[in-house]
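Record type: monomer structure entry
Structure origin: computed from sequence
Chain ID: A
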Amino acid sequence: MTTKDIYQLYIQHPAISTDTRKIAAGSLFFSLKGDKFDANTFAEQAIAAGAAYAIIDNPTYQLGEKYILVDDVLTALQDLARYHRKQLSIPVIGLTGTNGKTTTKELINAVLSQKFRTLATQGNLNNHIGVPLTILSINRTHQIAVIEMGANHQKEIALLSSIAQPSHGLITNIGKAHLEGFGGVEGIKKGKGELYDFLRADEGIVFVNGDDGVLMDMQKTRSLSKVVSYGTANKNNVVTGKLTENSPLLALEWTNKLCGESHSIKTQLTGVYNLDNILAAICVGVYFELEADEINAGITGYQPQNNRSQIKQTETNTLICDYYNANPSSMQVAIENIGKLQADRKVLILGDMFELGDESPAEHAAVIQKALDTDVAERIFIGKEFVKQESRAKNQESGVKFYTTAEETIEALKSSPIKNSTILIKGSRGMALERLVGLF
């Protein structure tokens, strides 16, 4: 069956299921393979649970007319999403970058939704499966879509761009993450730059941080002609801004250079690194001709709920929960931020960073040094990679501790609880540092 034929079924049944535990009645079930399972074996179960059709790629499980046989289920899903995208005339904003993708995506959506009916990537469904599922959830009522695209190796953003076919795009930054998969920082630049490559070929609009020399060089080398910039310093930026408060929530002043108007707003975000993410969302709002009041409402109303730069107030402590993920770049700026915070007593609790390959020892050592150079009362490092570098802190005061596991850390904190402090908790997702939160 061709993609066009499957699309006719999709028009009649515009809901996609990939998990038999969450079958939507009348949906199309795509039997995707995983590392430890073959969903072809669940196709009959999906039909029994209410799916209208099951898309399979193993003829053994073709048990009737409701079982659509294709060469490869994942390819069929991606091709269906491409076909659906071609039927849509709405702006699609593609977004990638090393750090701040999800926060920036949510801020952009918060702003644009003040005026438009928007659809944005849910959670972190930003990969080769999540992007097509997101595209296929766009319907005729939506006016703008914001699609987050993640990658841990080259050619992945090119693939996702071919599916989402963005008309507008934004790279938040280029930093050190997934070094092993990308093959170093130059590999990251090339991989993330695949979004710029698509937009150049498709004559799309690029939003770029005009103060970021790396991004500016990347767009200039591609001779991108439709560039809208934002930032704090570059005189050509359409939107400029500066922080006015960081204690720990951010307040800022921003200016629309097109009309010369300035506005002051307070946010529910922490971290000076989030200024760029906020200005990106404001810039997108200005480009799509939102009123300043609408832009401000979107920014001030956004409250992070995903353990990215999220503030939690306990009885005795202020927690900066930033443990959804971590890489060398985000660690450095998070530590730098807590050093700048207006707080009486500050504590760092940092967990291992993953997927760094041969660079892991040097990058963990650099984070330790950054933490030692930052004026805080206590520094706690958790994980095997940090423990390997413990000797770098051997001459420091007693306020530096290393633990191999979160479990060891929990027992230590039960014996010596932290009180009356502002605490940054940050580490890679696999460290599951949310387990510590109940101790504070």
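Annotation 1: The chain has a mean pLDDT of 94.
Annotation 2: The CA atoms of residues 182 and 399 lie 36 Å apart.
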